[in-house]
Every structure is written in structure tokens, then in C-alpha cells.
Automatic annotation (TrEMBL):
SMART domains: PKS_AT. The keyword Transferase applies. This is ACP S-malonyltransferase. It comes from Cellulomonas shaoxiangyii. Keywords: Transferase.
Length: 401
């Protein structure tokens, strides 16, 4: 059974002048990997607690503001029913099952869950939490690490707080930009319906229940082999497909149109089966980490100016690591553009990121903010294969008192 950390026991982001020589802890954030009614019910339960109400109201305001900026008709076209977050939190309107399968909705709920876990304890909430057992130091150096969309949450976790209301302002800003990012990406993804004949063939021969989409995980074969298969696919005239994520030496995610991915699977299924590889479409409606989404960044630059976004690398009090190539985002000149490009259109190399973090910081503990389990699994598997035995602690909201 994994230990679980109450929020007050977490190490805090620190400045370079702390002089703390303790082994740092990693704050790990998944981008996707958990959705559905259960996720919504957890947020509804938090909304009923007075200590979380200001944050969740600020997040709801941010969603409404982003929807207004994007245009309500456009949102309704992409997401039938829209994103009425406040109504969902109040349990006044249950989210449609179809909406919960869309990346834009899943991403909003995931980021909101992270913000709830990061909220500084105040007043009655702090008093209630003091009695809970701790599993780690109350303070200490940290390193922020976010997988895909989780990078935005890692940045928020690493920010230096400047005043009692600063967290709410940061949460409002990050939620506004996250919603706009997801909506712009969903719009740019276009029609994600696959070729009917290829989809039917996959259903008959694929052996799985996954529905074809714009991202597919290929496991059990070297990433170099996957890249070779993609090159052969393109040489044969297949629709564009990219290796979007490298989660491990034998774990990759391909991104492209559902038809392009089905073409590749159809042509290479014999090779994949012979190599003992598995193929599974992910529950995604957007091909994240795909270079074809790069034009979205121009729209987001205008959105950022409209939102008067102020979060910058200068405010990062803790290292937060990029995932396209090993580097500390404290050192970048334009944090927003860099961070969003990694989420949207840059390839993710998780193994290179982990190697860099271990070499530079040698952490001893990972605080896993979830909500999915896949990122922790990839992280633990890769590090243990290289002799790094870290402690993994699941961070969840404390139960109501």
C-alpha cells in the first residue's frame, strides 16, 4: 500500500538562498490519465468544504472568462454542453459522459485537481490538518516535474509566493491559460473521425476495446524500432504520424490523425506482433506533442496578452524541468511560450528528463500528485532499472473532518 501525504507535509518551493543541503524531493504531476464521474465527484466534495471554496470559485471564474474569450458558440461546437464548471461543482448539472471523454474537459479537471492539492493551508483547514501524520519534511528543496499537460501544474508548484492572495491569482491565471490552450488544441485537431473501413478492420483484428483516436501507445519494442516503422509508413505514402512521447526505452506514444495511425497499424501489425509489442489507442481527442499543432502558439500569444498573464521564470523558486530536452525552466527567457510549446507541439522524452534530474539533484522521494498512475509507473520502472530506489508518496486531499 502506498503512503499518502496530507498537503501540509509536502516540501515547499524554495529559493537558492535556503542553504538546505537535504536531498530534494520531486513533485510529480500527470497531465492526463484519469477522468470520469469519480473525478468530478472528488471535486464536488472539495467544493462543499469552505477552505476550498475560494479556489474553486476562482477557477470557475477563470473557465467562464476563457470561454468568453474563445467564444461560446465555438466552445459549444467543440464541446457540446460547454464547460459549466461551477454547475458541475455544485452538482447542479452532471457532466455528460461524452464530455468527460474529451481531452479539453479532462485537462481542465486534472489541472483543477492539482491546484486543490497545491492550495496553501489556511485557517480552519490548517488546524484540521495538523493532527494528520506526516510522511516527509515540512520544508525542503523540491524539483518540479510535469508530464505533458502536468508541466503547467509543476510550474505553479514551483512559483515563489508573494503575498497571501498570490496563490489564488496564480491559480486563476493558470486555469485561464490552460482552458484556452486546450480549446485551441481541440479546435486545431479538427475532425478526428477515422476511416470507417480501417476502424472496422482494427475492431475485428486488434483484439482490444479501445476506440481509434489521435494518440496510440506502443509498448514492448525499442523506441528506435518504432521510429523505423514510422519512417517506413511515411515512405509508403501514409498520413503524417510522429513519435510524440518517449516514456521509456520500450514505451512510446505515436500521434497523428486516427486514420494515419490506423494505416500504420494495418501495415505494421505483423512486425509489431512478431516483436511482442502491444498497441493501444489512448483516450485522447487531441494529438498532443505533434508539430502540426504549432500554429496554436500564435493564438495563445494573443490570449496571453489579453489575459495580462504575469507568471514568469523569474518567479520560479524551485527547478522545474523541461521535457523536450533536459534543462531547467528557471533559466528560460519566455516561460509561457516554452512551457506551452512543450505541451502542444514538442516531443516529450521522459527518460532524458529523468536522467537529467537524477544526475543534477539525486532526489530521494517522489510526491505523486496523479491523478493517473501511468506516469508514476514509467518513472519508477525506468529509475529502478538503473539502480535508483526512491520513495513514492501519493498526494491526495485529506478526508473531510
Amino acid at each position: 500500500m502506498r503512503p499518502t501525504a496530507p498537503r501540509h507535509a509536502l516540501p515547499a518551493a524554495h529559493g537558492a538562498d535556503t542553504g538546505d543541503a537535504a536531498s530534494p524531493s520531486v513533485l510529480l504531476f500527470s497531465g492526463f490519465g484519469a477522468s470520469g464521474p469519480g473525478h468530478v465527484r472528488q471535486l464536488q466534495e472539495l467544493y462543499r468544504r469552505p477552505s476550498y471554496r475560494p479556489l474553486l470559485e476562482a477557477a470557475s471564474d477563470a473557465v467562464d472568462r476563457a470561454v468568453h474569450r474563445f467564444g461560446e458558440p465555438g466552445v459549444q461546437h467543440l464541446l457540446p454542453g460547454g464547460i459549466p464548471l461551477r454547475a458541475w461543482l455544485r452538482a447542479a448539472t452532471p457532466p455528460p459522459a461524452a464530455a468527460l471523454r474529451l481531452s479539453a474537459v479532462e485537462g481542465v479537471l486534472t489541472h483543477l485537481s492539482h491546484l486543490c492539492l497545491l492550495q496553501p493551508d489556511e485557517g480552519a483547514a490548517a488546524a484540521a490538518h495538523r493532527a494528520a501524520p506526516t510522511v516527509g519534511p515540512a520544508t525542503g528543496p523540491v524539483v518540479g516535474l510535469g508530464h505533458s499537460l502536468g508541466l503547467i501544474s509543476a510550474v505553479v508548484a514551483g512559483l515563489r509566493r508573494e503575498g497571501g492572495q498570490q496563490f489564488l491569482r496564480d491559480a486563476h491565471e493558470s486555469m485561464t491559460m490552460t482552458v484556452l490552450t486546450l480549446l485551441r488544441c481541440q479546435e486545431a485537431a479538427g475532425d478526428q473521425r477515422p476511416d470507417p473501413a480501417l476502424a472496422r478492420r482494427y475492431g475485428e483484428l486488434g483484439g482490444g476495446r479501445d476506440r481509434p483516436g489521435p494518440m496510440a501507445a506502443v509498448s514492448g519494442v525499442d523506441v528506435a524500432t518504432v521510429r523505423d516503422l514510422v519512417a517506413e509508413h511515411h515512405a509508403g505514402g501514409g498520413q503524417p504520424v510522429e513519435v510524440g512521447l518517449v516514456n521509456g526505452p520500450r514505451d512510446a506514444v505515436l500521434c497523428g490523425s486516427p486514420t494515419g495511425l490506423l494505416e500504420l497499424w494495418s501495415r505494421q501489425q505483423g512486425t509489431l506482433a512478431g516483436a511482442g509489442a502491444s498497441w493501444a489507442f489512448l483516450n485522447s481527442s487531441v494529438p498532443f506533442h505533434n508539430s502540426r499543432l504549432a500554429p496554436v502558439l500564435d493564438h495563445l500569444a494573443a490570449d496571453r496578452e489579453w489575459a495580462k498573464a504575469s507568471i514568469s521564470g523569474e518567479r520560479l523558486a524551485a527547478p522545474v524541468y523541461a521535457t523536450d530536452e533536459p534543462r531547467n525552466l528557471q533559466q528560460v527567457t519566455d516561460l509561457y511560450t516554452d512551457c506551452l510549446s512543450q505541451v502542444i507541439c514538442r516531443p516529450l522524452d521522459w527518460t532524458a528528463t529523468l536522467r537529467s534530474v537524477m544526475a543534477e539533484h539525486r532526489p530521494s522521494r517522489v510526491y505523486d500528485f496523479g491523478p493517473g498512475v501511468a506516469v508514476r509507473m514509467f518513472t519508477r520502472k525506468y529509475l529502478e532499472q538503473r539502480g535508483h530506489a526512491l520513495e513514492y508518496v501519493s498526494v491526495r486531499s485529506p478526508p473531510a473532518r
